[in-house]
Q: What sequence folds into this?
């Protein structure tokens, strides 16, 4: 039976991680893997997470299943964090998932179940796993222009022109904040224009929000998602807790389906539970319980928000330092976009051969499309990276 299987292409980021591991150079810098790192190169456990886990350890007296959609308290807490009061809670169906990836997968499954011939409009570029999952499910993908390699910003006119080709029954996939892999984001007026396209075309928005709190702050990063949810009859939202709570390995995510009315909400909630049952039955609970504990405890929430602000401020500081160092070395302000981008990633907008030159000559590892993880830097490695970028002629 299994002799018919064919070898699958290697994940480029995982392959890059192995190359970095095998590199003997002491000066090597890893800007490929998409996890937050502190100045020592570690991905620390947040203080609030440790405190929440202690509370859970002391109080939890059972590991019994919580339910197909997970613990309702987790859904309530995360819906509030993401959407606040943008829409009535009674219209939001929600189900816990194994990470943000699980939420994305279940959203695509729900789309295919609701409308098998739906097209999904996806930014060019986007997180590669979006495309991989859609391809695996056999869903038609329509790319829309997004990143401008010349300006290293958003090709907004091209984006709007492409999105206008959507129609009712199509889905437009949007990054809620901190666009991955580019770091280039829409401003408030541009989000308003996207909403107008959604209303005019009747297409359904799906928002992937994996970095809330990493860009301009918890509420600012959720502003576009809230505005979209309030402006259209229905939408899907895939949220991740991996980054902003630092609980990557706990696989903690939530899929939300916002309905036009409470009756549709009931069907959506049943559908989300059904899809979970077909895929993994009951979602993992430990990470969800950590998040719920933090968000429902005033002291823990305040400490978490303070630490998250430290993380965000660190990344903004590294961006500013790198842009300034590149301006000093190159005598040009063409790298100013690095300070304007938000989140963990920025895309340099250069060629694959120059990315390879960074690796071969300087031991600097980033994805071949020139996406680099800003959080992989520290104040000492920023000048090294800047000098290497100038040296290879980016």
A:
């Amino acid at each position: 039976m299994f002799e018919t299987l064919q070898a699958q292409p290697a994940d480029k980021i995982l392959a890059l991680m192995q190359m970095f591991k095998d590199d003997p150079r002491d000066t090597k810098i890893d800007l490929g893997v998409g996890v937050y790192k502190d100045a020592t190169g570690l991905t620390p456990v947040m203080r609030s997470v440790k405190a929440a886990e202690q509370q859970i350890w002391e109080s939890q007296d059972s590991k019994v299943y919580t339910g197909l959609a997970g613990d309702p308290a987790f859904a309530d807490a995360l819906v509030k964090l993401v959407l606040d009061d943008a829409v009535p809670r009674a219209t939001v169906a929600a189900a816990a998932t194994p990470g943000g990836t699980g939420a994305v997968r279940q959203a695509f499954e729900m789309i295919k179940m609701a409308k098998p011939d739906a097209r999904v409009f996806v930014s060019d570029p986007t997180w590669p796993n979006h495309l991989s999952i859609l391809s695996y499910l056999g869903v038609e993908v329509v790319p829309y222009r997004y990143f401008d390699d010349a300006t290293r910003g958003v090709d907004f006119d091209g984006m709007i022109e492409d999105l206008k080709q959507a129609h009712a029954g199509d889905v437009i996939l949007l990054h809620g904040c901190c666009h991955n892999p580019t770091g280039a984001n829409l401003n408030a007026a541009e989000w308003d224009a996207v909403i107008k396209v959604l209303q005019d075309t009747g297409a359904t928005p799906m928002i992937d929000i994996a970095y809330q709190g990493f860009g301009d702050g918890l509420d600012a990063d959720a502003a576009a998602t809230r505005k979209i949810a309030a402006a259209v009859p229905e939408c899907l939202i895939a949220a991740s807790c991996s980054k902003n709570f630092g609980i990557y390995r706990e696989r903690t995510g939530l899929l939300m389906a916002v309905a036009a009315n409470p009756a549709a909400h009931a069907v959506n909630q049943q559908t989300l539970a059904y899809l979970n049952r077909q895929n993994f039955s009951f979602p993992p609970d430990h990470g969800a319980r950590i998040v719920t504990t933090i968000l429902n405890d005033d002291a823990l929430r305040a400490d978490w928000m303070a630490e998250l602000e430290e993380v965000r401020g660190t990344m903004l500081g590294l961006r500013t330092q790198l842009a300034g160092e590149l301006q000093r070395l190159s005598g040009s302000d063409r790298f100013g976009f690095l300070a304007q981008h938000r989140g963990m990633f920025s895309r340099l907008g250069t060629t694959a051969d120059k990315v390879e030159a960074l690796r071969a000559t300087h031991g600097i590892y980033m994805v071949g499309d020139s996406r680099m993880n800003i959080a992989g830097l520290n104040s000492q490695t920023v000048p090294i990276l800047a000098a290497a970028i100038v040296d290879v002629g980016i």
User: Anything to note?
Assistant: The first strand starts at residue 29 and ends at 30.
